[in-house]
Amino acid sequence: MSTAELHAGVRVGGWSWVWRPWIVLVTLVLAALTFLVFCVSISVGDFTVELPAVIRTIFGQGERVDEFVIMDLRMPRALVGLIVGAALGISGALTQSIARNPLASPDVLGITGGASATAVFLVTATGGAAITSAVGLPAAALTGGLLTGLLVYFLAWRRGVDGFRLILIGISVSAVMQALTTWLLVLADIRDVARAQSWLVGSLDSRSWTEVWTTLWVTVALVLVVLMTSFQFRPMHFGDDVAAGLGVRYSAVRAVLLLCAVLLAGVAVSAAGPVPFVALVAPQITMRLLRTPVPPLIASGLFGALLLIGSDLIARTVLPNDLPVGIVTAIIGGPFLVYLLVRQNVKRVAP
Q1: Residues 95/157, Cβ–Cβ less than 8 Å
Q2: What distance in Å separates the CA atoms of residue 118 and residue 139, rounded to the nearest whole number?
Q3: pLDDT tens for residues 140-160?
Q4: What are the pLDDT digits (tens) for 119-142?
Q5: Is residue 106 within 8 Å of 300, Cβ to Cβ?
Q6: What are phi and psi of 204, to 5 degrees?
């Protein structure tokens, strides 16, 4: 019997659940690693702060100089990375579970492409003023992602949503949105193109507390909806017929969760730009770490946060010229996408 198979039933009053030590252990390790990398990311910069001082300052016992450097200058960037990474990880886990395909992610389904096209349109139409707006650009990206997700869902609907059809339509819509974004950049003023390109790569630079709180509250609200709905989603892993036999309204549950996945991706893009591959990589790696048949939601969010914060740390310390974090996630996610494609092809040709 493997470690992943060790479990026990637990019942307290009217509540009951299955206790799986391996899943709990790996999740706690991911949480600890995420917090450690979060603190290291805050400590590193032009003015280095010792790691114990960072931890003391986070818990409200730091010196005044450390509080200014950490809380005013570095904490918003790190927190936006933490929230955006978690939102992308959970969004990817939802889309991959709904489509039952490891290639399904907001990047592939065109959600981030729609958010990007809408944001670029706003930047080029307002002469770059939207970049400095605390409401305009995030609202445009969120609206674009939501409308694109709804478009993909309705185009894929044929008395239900088939995962393979959802991915094919998503890829097509993503290509259209990419072409639209390129067309807008070609027509725009060169100065607006430079502003838009810096956002399109995906970056955590110059984030403020306003963006932190906006992103946090929207993400928390969506995650609560996902957690409350996920109990009805679990039977759907055994097929729609089994779920219907257990009284689950699988079409409504799938629609709600897909809407939450679209909104989580839209919120992430509105806060940090279209950071690539986090939503694709995080669920698949955590599924292998936890040895579960489907991507785990909480662990995927933790690993997404760890991946994004770690990539931002690498971009600021290892790579030259303080490159945007999206370049690092693309370097990591590109080969992983090739691995998934090869693995899918091997499965299809295997006897």
Answers
A1: no
A2: 10
A3: 888 888 899 888 888 887 766
A4: 888 877 766 555 545 566 777 888
A5: no
A6: -110, 10
Report the share of the chain in percent with pLDDT over 70: 83
Give residue 247's pLDDT band: very low, low, confident or very high (50, 70, 90): low
CA 348 distance to own-chain centroid: 28
Helix or strand (DSSP H, E) at 6: none
CA 162 to chain CA mean position, Å = 23
pTM: 0.88
CA distances from 313 to 120, 228, 240, 290 (A): 27, 34, 43, 25
Q: For domain 18-349, which architecture applies?
A: Orthogonal Bundle (1.10)
What is the enclosing helix (H) or strand (E) of 292?
none
Residue with tokens 């185009």: 155
**Residue with structure tokens 């055994």?**
238
Q: Where are the beta strands (DSSP E) in the chain?
A: 8-12, 15-19
Kindly write down the DSSP assignment for every residue of 240-287, as one continuous string: HHHHHHTT--HHHHHHHHHHHHHHHHHHHHHHH----SHHHHHHHHHH
Residue found under tokens 């959600």:
111
Neighbours of 311 (CB within 10 A): 27
Stretch (H or E) spanning 133: none
SS3 per-residue string spanning 238-251? HCHHHHHHCCCCHH
| Under 8 Å between Cβ of 148 and 114 | yes
Which CA distances in Å does 228 have to 23, 54, 86?
20, 35, 17
Question: Measured in whole angstroms, how far is the alpha carbon of residue 16 from the centre of its chain?
Answer: 30
Domain residue ranges of the chain, discontinuous segments joined by +: 18-349
- Helices 111-125 and 250-272: crossing angle, nearest 10°? 40
Confidence (pLDDT) at 116: 86
- Residue 10, judged by CB atoms within 10 A of its CB (0-12, 13-18, 19+), counts as exposed
- Taking the C-alpha atoms of residue 101 and residue 273, their distance in angstroms, rounded to an integer, is 25
Name the CA radius of gyration of the chain, rounded: 21
How far apart CA 275 and CA 311 sit, in angstroms, is 11
